[in-house]
Amino acid sequence: MAKPAARIAFLQAVLALAGVTVVVRAFVVQIQQHEAWEARATSRNVRPRVIPQTRGTIRDRSGTPLAATFDAFTISVSQNELRDTVATRSALVEALGLSASEVASQFRRRDYPYFDGPFDASQVLPLRAIRGVHLGREVDREGRLGDRAKPIVGEINGEGEGRSGIEAFLDTLLAGTPGSERVLVDGGGRRVKIPGGIIAPPVPGHEVLLTIDHELQGIVESALAEAVTRFEAMGGDAVVVEVRTGEILSIASLRTVARGQRPVPTPAALVEPYEPGSTAKIFTAAAMLAFRADTTPVSGYDGEWQMEVAPGRYRTIADTHREPGLLGLGETIKVSSNIAISQFAMRLSPEQQFGMLRAFGFGTQPGTGFPAEAPGVLVPPGRKANLKYTMPSWAQGYEFSTSSLQLAMAYAAIANGGVLLAPTLVAEVRDGETGAPTWQHRADTVRRVVEPGVARQLMDYLALVTDSGGTGTGAQLDFRGVVGKTGTAKLDGGAGGYLREYRGSFAAIFPEDDPRFVVFVMIDRPGGTTYYGGEVAAPVVKAILQQAMVLPDSPLESGRLTPMITLAAPPPVTPPPPSVRRVGFPVPKDVMVEGGAEVIPDLTGWSVRDALQSLSRQGFTVRLTGEGLVERTSPAAGTSLLRGSTITIHASPGPSR
Predict the structure, then answer these.
(1) If 538 and its partner were Cys, which of 55, 230, 369, 506 is the partner (CB 3.0–4.6 Å)?
(2) Domain containing residue 445
(3) What pTM did the predictor assign?
(4) What's phi and psi for 3, nearest 5 deg?
């Protein structure tokens, strides 16, 4: 048996070896393998986390929020975790503004009471420290003014993406970019921020300022709702635009599927086309003047005319107001004679009448970019079976369809000296972090439709409508002149012909002595026996103007609105290479060419979108092959064609830019 000294020496040797082993292992782990073990620990305890970004605010032109993002909270309660149930219930009542009976009912019926709110941060603050009360965070989006202009502003879906309206149209601008960071997760699953853990900060979405004036929007929505209720109508539209900029100051629509039901707000004024009726008569008058057609007065036929449309076949055209004598072009507009305007229309060529309607923007996209924006329908004369039916129908506002916005912009072209502008709902885009403007609207000229002298003559005709004996006297103001045109259109019943239901409308230009604004109102299928535009729509225009003009800093005061769009000079733009056109809205030349002909422009290198816009604005019908940049057109660039002719765009197979 070994001596004690030997055993002690052996034990010491073993301990020394173990100590050396520990030291060596520690050296290897802490020094040589430090990075590997650190990475392993980090992978287990450090997690990436997305930092949500803030969606950009949508404001009206004055900066008032129409849609803003803020944190909202829901409340759930685990009753088995509560220390004092009675005190917790009292705290919920006081903090959330709920009734005691509502809170008590939730506690009786559920083990885990739930209150969906949503509640804001200040409401839930007193509840954060209560054990058993759990907060659920979600994003809420609404404006200071509630549902005002809601169909135009639009909505977002559950993922925070634009679903409709401006929210969808400008989703990529409003959305912003989420950030990311590293956080430490402890044994209890709690996340702890790490100094310097930010990988990429979130970028907030851009702010968008609309052209809408929220005060005027409130007036328009209220006046329209009152009229729809009073006339027991199926709905209506109201649009206010600024003549010299194309800015939409207010736009509202109401629709219902059954009479007696409460109408709901929709974007119908932008997306729903219809036959306009007599508000379209002024455009045939424009063609008469522009093409110097024969304006010798015609017979009123005592209120009923049998028009021969084929040998032995006649079409009855009637007037509400019997006119036994002769009617000049101005008197025709004043009394809204179907018989007289039909006779004047037959003194034009089909191409001239069609070309004028197309030049005023009918049958083409207005260009606001709003989702599902309606171009309306205007079929070229070559595809019509009998022009002796079609031309009088066009003159009376039938056999083509238009949205309320298109009609408002067409009247704005008359008020603007004959120049048609593209409408816009967006006044400005601002950087979400700095607030600096990144884009500002400038008036976008589409084309000169008629010469200034013709526009002035049309204004004189419209002044007759609101003068004594005209059909639109119900819109006239005592303190400032209003000019305009009434319309009363039957509804198309399809194969069964036209129904005995009507849309009454009035298009007003204000003020007469300094045309700055167009106010268009349409009342859809009013009930009872009152349905003429002069009776149901003209008074609504008057009410809107009267209320708007008494506002402090009225949005309809001349000179108040235009400075909004000239806050800063546009940034310098590097011109594109000659073979590629910059994406935008090209401005075509004057389309009112002798004979209604147009020269096809060279569109090589243009985006398909721009090419479609340009050719449509010139009055052509367009076919498309391919999706990328334009390679050529058929017929070729430089060819002269009548408006209404079809042009094929041949584009590269790649995606359009």
Answers:
(1) 506
(2) 214-565
(3) 0.75
(4) -70, 155
